[in-house]
Design goal:
Elements lengths: L8 H27 L2 H9 L8 H6 L7 E2 L5 H17 L1 H12 L5 H39 L10 E2 H18 L2 H10 L5 H6 L1 H15 L5 H32 L1
Parallel strand pairs: 1-2
Helix pairs in contact: 1-4, 1-5, 4-7, 5-6, 6-7, 6-8, 6-11, 8-11, 10-11
């Protein structure tokens, strides 16, 4: 095993190359496996929110109807490929975090390693919680709103399969990544870079940032989508404040 204290720049570069190769190999292998589970991926998961009997619609009593069409020759095959790859990224996320930790750990001090290790242990859970929130609440509500919104009764809503998949995948990945914010705050707080007081003082600015971020996530810009996306994002910020407070209390007790 190479001593990390004597590793040269080229040694680190070689280590990075090996990490990237392992990540690509893991994603490729997972994508190939998922490719043969088309019915489960599409009928069981991805297209489920387009079904009127989706659990959230029954829970809120929504009268929902959606029609999907394919208008391109090779679209369904390309969508199948895209879905399997994105699904592979989601499934392999804990391994991606492990490879990231494995690469950056040698450059950290022992106290920094402890803080970062604790945060990364929860990062995968937060990532999947973000996906669950997007899948179970955000995406179905947005879909229900857009499917029922018409400028005229003479113009029915018929969505293309590609637009549905693009919105679905972007929402899943975006919320999964955004829910990593508490992980970043926990690391910065443990390292003494971010404090509880600074987060509280930034609260008003955070509201503006959340609205702007929600507008980016939902480029349609309609008030309903902004509200649906902004609320969980702001709650995520408040949760980060709580995490920061706990880190400070821990540090004080240790002193």
């Amino acid at each position: 095993m190479v001593d990390t204290e004597t590793m040269t720049f080229w040694d680190h570069l070689e280590d990075l190359r090996k990490s990237i190769f392992r990540v690509i190999a893991a994603l490729a292998a997972t994508s190939v496996i998922l490719f043969f589970f088309k019915d489960f991926l599409f009928e069981g998961l991805i297209l489920a929110p387009a079904n009127p009997d989706f659990f959230l619609y029954r829970l809120i009593g929504a009268d929902f109807s959606l029609s999907l069409v394919n208008i391109e020759v090779a679209a369904q095959f390309m969508i199948h490929m895209k879905v399997t790859f994105v699904s592979a990224i989601i499934l392999c996320f804990p391994y991606l975090i492990y490879e990231l930790w494995r690469f950056v750990a040698p450059a950290l001090y022992e106290n920094e390693k402890k803080a970062v290790r604790k945060a990364l242990l929860f990062s995968s859970g937060l990532f999947y919680i973000g996906i669950v929130v997007a899948y179970c609440v955000i995406f179905p509500l947005m879909l229900n709103f857009f499917a029922g919104y018409q400028v005229s009764p003479d113009v029915p809503n018929t969505f293309s399969l590609s637009s549905y998949i693009s919105l679905f995948m972007s929402m899943m990945l975006t919320f999964g990544i955004v829910f990593e914010f508490p992980t970043i705050i926990a690391v910065l707080s443990a390292l003494g870079i971010v404090t509880r007081e600074s987060l509280r003082g930034f609260r008003r600015h955070a509201i503006c940032v959340v609205v702007v971020l929600a507008a980016v996530i939902t480029p349609s810009g309609d008030p309903f989508s902004l509200l649906v996306v902004s609320v969980p994002l702001y709650l995520l910020y408040e949760f980060s404040v709580i995490i920061c407070r706990k880190e400070e209390v821990t540090e004080i007790s240790e002193e």
